[in-house]
Design brief:
The protein is mainly beta. Helix content is 7%, strand content 45%. It has four helices and 16 strands. The protein is elongated and about 65 Å long. Belongs to the OmpP1/FadL family.
Length: 426
């Protein structure tokens, strides 16, 4: 049986269009650096775990092999409302930047996501997911932190990334599967109010206030899922770097003439069912931010003679991060499941790199989640979740270079999100 007659080109085009629509409303920030902390409402209610715990049609975005465990065709539609609280303070600056700055000029943000799974045979399963990978937004509309340098208007950035991933998984032995996804990406970026830094750019005309530029990319994701016993499952995945076209309108800002690839990531997970009604799961994940020059290169590169936008030029100075997640789900009855979870991410922003990261303070570390699912007799499911990431502050240490007046920039971020997902057996 082939999947292609069941997914005609018109339907696929409509889903691809949904991905572009999702880009227009993608989240303003995320929790694992700028990556989302989970995909699918059930995973999000359990701290983001999903590498070894397939629960809905979006499971392939966490580990492509897990779609083999979805026994019947289903579709899931979800929406998340995301509310970040971000800002900065500057102190001891000799150029007049001192003050407290609120980056919350834009809030809240809405993120749709969609998943479809269809078994093609006893061994082969197809899936399609459209989901936000992450993003970052700041909007200092009540006071530009760089105004003393002559900056005009509201300072801020807006990065949005959406993945569209067709997936195939093959169950090569009972309970053991391999999966692969082709990852297509659409991303958008806009920067405003940072005009004074154009003097340090290789391409000043393409540095700031050029509206939203769109870039496209491609990569792949592979995974393994194995049911070791009836009560224990394990999983692992690797996602390649997503190689993207340049942001031409910001070729003078991002390293390598506007380069902004998505960093590679990989991880492993385990799920254990100690009783018939209780599931416990844990994931560990690594994200290699430092391998993307625009993200990982330090600002100090600028003072070695390499301008913004140059080959291997300055970036945001982000470190790689390791993320751990823990979650639990309990079936109160056949109709109701409740969930809770916790995630802990390294902070990617070093204390020495906070000056530029006033624009991108992706520094939250702790994430607390709850969720629940209600199932109708028809098989329709409604899932809700909520997440709170408490405020984390990063205090600068030698953060503002002497040519910009010295002193320290301190950044902070807190996050709240909640959402709903509706699932259907098809």
């Amino acid at each position: 049986m082939s999947v292609f007659p069941t997914l005609p080109s018109l339907r696929f085009a409509a889903l691809a269009g949904a991905g572009v629509l999702a880009l227009a409303s993608a989240p303003a920030a995320a929790t694992d650096g700028y990556f989302l902390n989970g995909v699918g409402a059930k995973a999000k209610g359990m701290g983001g775990v999903g590498i070894a715990l397939p629960q809905d049609a979006l499971t392939g975005a966490n580990n492509p092999a897990t779609i083999s465990a979805i026994d019947s065709p289903r579709a899931d539609f979800g929406v998340e409302v995301f509310v970040p609280d971000r800002g900065a303070t500057i102190e001891g600056n000799g150029a007049g930047l001192d003050g407290s700055y609120d980056g919350n000029g834009a809030n809240p943000f809405v993120l749709p996501e969609f998943g479809y799974v269809r078994p093609l045979s006893d061994e082969l399963t197809f899936a399609l997911t459209i989901n936000g990978n992450g993003g970052m937004n700041t909007d200092y509309d009540s006071g530009n932190p760089y105004a003393a340098f002559g900056a005009q208007g509201a300072a801020g950035v807006d990065l949005k990334q959406v993945f569209i991933s067709p997936t195939l998984a093959y169950e090569f032995s009972e309970g053991h599967s391999l999966g692969v996804s082709a990852v297509g990406m659409v991303q958008g970026f806009r920067a405003t109010g940072i005009q004074p830094f154009t003097q340090a750019s290789a391409d000043p005309a393409n540095f700031t206030d050029n509206g939203t530029d769109v870039s496209f990319g491609a990569g792949f994701r592979v995974g393994y899922y194995g049911e070791l016993t009836e009560n224990i499952a394990i999983g692992a995945f690797y996602q390649s770097k997503v190689w993207a076209t340049e942001f031409d309108d910001y070729a003078g800002l991002f390293a390598d003439q506007g380069g902004f690839d998505v960093p590679a990531s990989y991880g492993a997970g385990i799920a254990v069912r100690p009783t018939e009604r209780l599931v416990l799961a844990a994931d560990i994940k690594r994200i290699e931010y430092s391998d993307v020059n625009s993200v990982g290169n330090p600002l100090g590169v600028l003072f070695t003679g390499v301008p913004f936008g140059g080959a291997n030029g300055p970036g945001f100075g982000w470190d790689d991060v390791t993320v751990v997640k823990f979650g639990a789900a309990y079936d109160i009855s056949d109709a109701v499941t409740v969930r809770a979870g916790y995630g802990r991410s390294d902070n990617p922003v070093p204390a020495s790199e906070t000056f530029l990261n006033i624009l991108a303070p992706g520094v939250v570390q702790d994430h607390f989640t709850v969720g629940a699912t209600w199932r109708a007799n028809s098989g329709t499911e409604i899932t809700a979740f909520a997440m709170r990431a408490p405020r984390n502050d990063v205090l600068g240490q030698g953060a503002i270079p002497a040519p910009y007046g010295g002193g320290e920039a301190n950044v902070f971020l807190a996050e709240t999100s909640f959402g709903l997902e509706v699932g259907f057996q098809l």
